[in-house]
Amino acid sequence: MDWLQNIEWMSLIKSFVVGGLICVIGQILIDKTKLTPARILVLFVTTGAILGGLGIYQYLVDFAGAGATVPLTGFGNNLAKGAIKAVKEYGIIGAFTGGVTAAAGGISAAVFFGYIASLISKPKMKKQ
Amino acid sequence: MKPLDSKKDYQKYVEQKSPNSPIFKNCFNAFWVGGLICTIGQIIMNICKSKGFSVEISGTIVSIILIGISAFLTSLNIFNKIGKFAGAGSLIPITGFANSIVSPSMEYKSEGYIMGVGGKMFTVAGPVLVFGISTSIIIGLIYMIFNTQSITLV
Lengths: 128, 154
Hints:
The complex is a heterodimer. Chain A is an all-alpha fold.
């Protein structure tokens, strides 16, 4: 069990609290407004990208680690950060390549695992 | 009961009768389930870092593992139960993104493997990618023009 020693417990608590709070914001939006879950996902990704572009979200990532990167705002932040980094290196073409490059792992995994998982699923599941 | 004349009265009546959702309980559940998912991510991240991966690569590994797990949990119909209980707690983390890909494509499986499964995968994930990627391009262009991120108040 030597991997247990590698865990910094403080970082776990931070990511639990910050990640939980971001989810509570989403829950309040669901309960208090008439937004559908799809719109909330879009809202969170866009917000994350804007906050990332302004450089604000990075403070949250530095503080909470996965608590800030695992929620979809982190996905948006990743896109924005990648775009800025690529613009620094390649100029205007970087604006188009950087975002997706940074998020490529997540997008590809979602497409690939999503397709496989749908194939092996049982077809009957009308009750949501 | 007196008859309801105007639309306004009717609205009021409906609001009285419909059960108000227990927002505090929902928020509490969303908090601890969402927190737990992020904590699992942090544990994976710590392990990756201790194996010598960089921060960016560790983040990508975390996303891939969480997406994989939640995709398969969705196909086994377990994720829907968690989602019903936790609400935004399982929707907002990247797990919700994976779930939003698998659930519609499962439903349209009968329409075939190309247009059914392959096409419907993006009913919810499509808008997310469209707006996320477009925003990132705009941010890149803005950065190019102003050459600074410090439009921020910082």
